[in-house]
Amino acid sequence: MREVENEFGKVMYLNSGDWVENLTALKYKKEKWSIYQYKKTDYIDHEKKEDTIINDIVTKILS
Hints:
The chain has about 60 residues and is α+β, with helices and mostly antiparallel strands.
């Protein structure tokens, strides 16, 4: 992230990352930009939460 200035004015340049090779992207939270880097554990945790919810629903249906 850097500010670029020339005779016409200024602009903030944000490198949006590289989802294909490095699994990075821009993230905007609480009025701030940062680089998000995907980690396999993010997916695994999300998957476990979904499995738990589905199992809870099935249990309630069957009881």
